[in-house]
């Protein structure tokens, strides 16, 4: 079964959802602008309050300067010490500096600038009168000053300055109150508008939340349905895979049974017929050698053809069901097959089989021996076709877990995509044979990360062990051989059944 993944179609967000999103964003932007405007208005109001307080401070300080100048002048008149004239002499510069600061602070208020101009005139007039009084003191002394003060109104100038200062402070406070009232009115309107905007935003967010929650639950329902569908599909695939695996194992068993039956029929019936034909031809050939030599020569050639037919029958029977497997056991069958493999491929093949294997196989399942033999046969066939190896080793040992079969070569190895190909019937057949016996088949890299190692592990039940072992515990020794090249290749076992390497034999003609 093959699945194709196509790109999902492009879907756009519904129009009403887009409108809600844009509306919510615009409301939040407008609310942010109003908040920024309110912040600027609050900052402006704070600046105006600070300006009013500074104006009041400057005005009071100006009044203090004038009073201090007058007090220092009177101290000078009484004591005659010119040290007292310090504030009087510096008051002009200080008052001009204060007036300039007040002009800068009242630049946005023309009425207050007019009042400041009048105050400045009064201050200058007062300072001029102070300077004139000092000049009079220098020429006429204290008596002249007393006479002037008796007829003059010195206090009136200070009262006018103080009154003008109070007027300016009061007007500044009134301006501040008016601005504050206007600011609070604007702030109240902005607050009401902000509340309305927030209410609308909350309504839009609630609507959008309902849409999102509805979409979420709908998506969750779809995902749940898809998950259920996937689980059902996985269960169906697993069930069908198990059915196919069971069918494959059944077909393997049926195929082996059919091959065994066909090989017996060929051996018994066809073998008997060919033997009878050979005996008859031999008898007739002996009678015709003296009377009809030419007919005897034809019969001799026919007998040679019959011998070739018998050999062909033997090869067919061996391919269907090795006779050594039933007569001498699994070890002899594998040993003979590897001999034939080395002779035909001229490829050295080292065979190492534990001596207890035949007893285990005879006492176990009847399909165990043929399954292991077929795995060895298929593995060597693949090595001969594809591996391009220079040496092969076949190891069959008994471990604590069961039987372990390894076929290792030093060829080019098997690529990962080849293992996953659906047409790798040989590998699938070997794996199914292992599964049929309850075992596993593993394919990995060989020694030194070269070639291929096919490992089959078949678990054994306690009743499947050979009867000759009885209740005694088999002491397993460490298996030491040239095959142990990887850390996971260490298999404890008894001394191997056969340790001789199968070298390449010298070709000869088997027909004498």
What does this structure look like?
The chain is an alpha+beta fold and 512 residues long. The protein has 11 helices and 6 strands. The protein has helices at 15-79, 86-105, 110-151, 154-291, 293-320, 323-327, 330-345, 357-363, 366-387, 416-420, 425-436, and strands spanning 349-353, 392-398, 402-409, 440-445, 452-459, 501-502. A 6-stranded mixed beta sheet has the order 4-5-3-2-1-6. It is rod-shaped. Residues 1-5 and 463-512 have low confidence and may be disordered.
Quick overview of this protein structure:
By secondary structure, the protein is α+β, with helices and mostly antiparallel strands. The protein is built from eleven helices and six strands.
Helices and strands, in N-to-C order? Answer: HHHHHHHEHHEEHHEEE
Q: If helices are DSSP runs of H or I spanning 4 or more residues, what is the number of helices? A: 11
The overall strand count is 6
Biggest sheet character: 6 strands, mixed
Euclidean distance between termini CA atoms = 56 Å
Mean pLDDT: 76
- How big a fraction of the residues is strand? 5-15%
Task: Give helix % range.
Answer: over 70%
- Based on CA inertia axes, which overall geometry fits? rod-shaped
- Which residues form runs of ≥5 with pLDDT under 50? 1-5, 463-512
Radius of gyration: 60 Å
Secondary-structure blueprint of this entry?
Layout: H1 15-79, H2 86-105, H3 110-151, H4 154-291, H5 293-320, H6 323-327, H7 330-345, E1 349-353, H8 357-363, H9 366-387, E2 392-398, E3 402-409, H10 416-420, H11 425-436, E4 440-445, E5 452-459, E6 501-502
Parallel strand pairs: 1-2
Antiparallel strand pairs: 1-6, 2-3, 3-5, 4-5
């Amino acid at each position: 079964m093959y699945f194709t993944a196509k790109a999902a179609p492009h879907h756009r967000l519904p129009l009403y959802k887009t409108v809600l999103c844009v509306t919510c964003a615009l409301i939040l932007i407008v609310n942010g602008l109003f908040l920024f405007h309110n912040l600027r208005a609050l900052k402006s109001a704070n600046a105006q309050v600070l300006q009013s307080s500074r104006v009041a401070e400057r005005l009071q300080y100006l009044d203090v300067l004038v009073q201090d100048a007058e007090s220092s002048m009177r101290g000078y008149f009484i004591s005659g010490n010119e040290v007292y004239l310090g504030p009087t002499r510096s008051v002009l510069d200080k008052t001009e500096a204060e007036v300039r600061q007040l002009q800068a602070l009242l630049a946005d208020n023309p009425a207050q600038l007019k009042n400041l101009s009048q105050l400045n005139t009064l201050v200058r007039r007062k300072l001029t009168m102070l300077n004139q009084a000092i000049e009079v003191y220098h020429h006429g002394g204290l008596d002249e000053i007393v006479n002037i003060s008796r007829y003059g109104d010195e206090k009136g100038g200070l009262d006018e300055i103080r009154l003008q200062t109070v007027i300016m402070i009061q007007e500044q406070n009134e301006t501040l109150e008016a601005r504050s009232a206007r600011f609070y009115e604007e702030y109240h309107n902005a607050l009401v508008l902000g509340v309305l905007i927030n209410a609308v935003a909350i309504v839009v967010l609630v609507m959008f939340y309902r849409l999102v929650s509805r979409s979420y639950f709908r998506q969750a329902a779809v995902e749940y349905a898809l998950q259920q569908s996937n689980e059902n599909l996985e269960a169906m695939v697993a069930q069908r895979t198990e059915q196919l695996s069971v069918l494959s194992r059944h077909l393997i068993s049926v195929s082996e049974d059919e091959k065994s039956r066909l090989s017996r029929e060929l051996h018994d019936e066809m073998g008997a017929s060919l033997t009878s034909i050979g005996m008859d031809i031999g008898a007739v050939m002996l009678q015709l050698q003296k009377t009809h030599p030419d007919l005897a020569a034809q019969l001799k050639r026919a007998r040679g053809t019959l011998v070739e037919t018998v050999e062909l029958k033997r090869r067919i029977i061996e391919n269907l069901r090795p006779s050594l497997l039933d007569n001498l056991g699994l070890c002899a069958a594998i040993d003979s097959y590897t001999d034939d493999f080395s002779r035909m491929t001229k490829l050295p093949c080292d065979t190492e089989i534990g001596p207890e294997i035949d007893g285990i196989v005879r006492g176990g399942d009847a399909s165990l021996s043929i399954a292991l033999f077929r795995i060895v046969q298929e593995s060597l066939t693949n090595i001969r076709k594809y591996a391009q190896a220079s040496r092969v080793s076949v190891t069959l040992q008994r471990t604590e877990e069961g039987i372990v079969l390894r076929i290792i070569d030093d060829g080019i190895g098997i690529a990962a995509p080849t293992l996953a190909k659906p047409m790798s019937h040989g590998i699938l057949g070997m794996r199914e044979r292992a599964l049929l016996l309850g075992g596993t088949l593993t394919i990995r890299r060989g020694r030194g990360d070269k070639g291929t190692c096919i490992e089959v592990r078949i678990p054994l039940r306690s009743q499947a062990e050979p009867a000759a072992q009885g209740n005694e515990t088999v002491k397993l020794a460490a298996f030491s051989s040239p095959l142990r090249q990887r850390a996971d290749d260490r298999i404890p076992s008894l001394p191997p059944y056969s340790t001789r390497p199968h070298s390449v034999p010298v070709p000869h003609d088997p027909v004498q």
